Amino acid sequence: MRTTLTIEDDVAVRLEKALRTRSMSFEALINDALRRGLDDMERPAGPRPAHVLSTVDLGACLLPSLDSGAAALAHGEGEAFEKRPVDTSEEI
Predict the structure, then answer these.
(1) Does some domain include residue 23?
(2) Are 15 and 30 in contact (CB under 8 A)?
(3) How many CB atoms within 10 Å of residue 68?
């Protein structure tokens, strides 16, 4: 079969390098590369290896309590934080 093929620049560079290291014609190189690529594409994919996560001990929590976001932020910024009762008698 005769056809026109547009080869992208990165592939052309690899083909030129392969031509310098092999004693074959450009046509033979293209056909060999296509055969190998098609063989690889037709092979069923094998099982993927399981990804294992490792754990790290971070030690004790440095915050006195994680119940209050405001207290955690104040502690992170080095400020003292007092929890004050909310005055509901004031109207806004």
Answers:
(1) yes
(2) yes
(3) 14
